[in-house]
Structure formats: structure tokens, C-alpha cells
């Protein structure tokens, strides 16, 4: 189910990545999901990660931004190092957050579209 949920999220944002197993779900997937969700590059990301530390840094940047800028709650139960170590529980928590954000945004777009006679307002397309 975790892999299916992740693939569905990637598909919803037209991201041409498919994960096959939990080991495929790492920093690159989460950075890509974040940027797909918000339509802009996340500052501070190492764009060509080489080391394990680069991967941990990128994953922590996603977690920190979700915590501080989006959700305004602590996500201390999700640790970047555990995601890079393929810890299923931490990965599942982060996938669930992205699933919830995706549902929220898609519901808002549908609501806004119905409020505007079926047309999606321009600000939703940015």
C-alpha cells in the first residue's frame, strides 16, 4: 500500500518516477513531491546529491519546510536519517503527510472551480 500511495502521488503531479520497493522512496522522491505540490524549487536542496549526507540534508530540508512553512507543527517523529536508512515507519509518515496535502489541495481546486462556474481560477494554475 505504501508503494501504491507513493506512485499515485507521483502520478497526480505528473512526475515520471515509479517506485518499485520501499528502498526507492528516498530524498529524491520527497524533494520531487514537495516541488511538484508547490510548483517551485525548494531552497537549500543539493541538486546533484553525491553522498549519503547530501541525501540526508535534502530529506531534512523537506521535513523542516513542511514543519515550519506548511503545517506549523513539529515533525520530530520523522527523521531524515531513518528515511535514508529505508525505515518504513518514517517513510510512511512522510508519505501520509504528502497524501493529506495532496487531497487538501485537490479539494480546494475543485471547490474553487465550482465557485467559479467550473473554471479553475488562474491562481490555482500557477
UniProtKB/TrEMBL annotation:
Gene3D superfamilies listed in its UniProt record: Calponin-like domain
Coiled coil ranges: none
Record GO cellular component, one term: centrosome
Domain DUF5745: 42-101
Protein name per the record: DUF5745 domain-containing protein
Organism: Lottia gigantea (Giant owl limpet)
Amino acid at each position: 500500500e505504501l508503494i501504491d500511495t507513493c506512485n499515485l502521488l507521483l502520478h497526480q503531479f505528473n512526475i515520471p518516477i515509479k517506485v518499485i520497493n520501499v528502498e526507492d522512496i528516498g530524498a529524491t522522491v520527497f524533494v520531487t513531491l514537495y516541488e511538484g505540490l508547490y510548483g517551485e524549487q525548494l531552497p537549500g536542496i543539493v541538486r546533484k546529491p553525491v553522498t549519503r549526507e547530501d541525501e540526508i540534508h535534502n530529506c531534512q530540508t523537506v521535513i523542516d519546510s513542511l514543519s515550519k512553512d506548511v503545517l506549523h507543527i513539529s515533525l520530530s517523529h520523522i527523521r531524515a536519517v531513518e528515511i535514508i536508512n529505508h525505515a518504513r515507519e518514517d517513510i510512511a509518515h512522510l508519505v501520509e503527510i504528502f497524501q493529506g496535502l495532496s487531497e487538501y489541495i485537490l479539494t480546494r481546486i475543485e471547490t474553487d472551480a465550482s465557485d467559479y462556474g467550473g473554471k479553475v481560477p488562474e491562481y490555482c494554475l500557477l
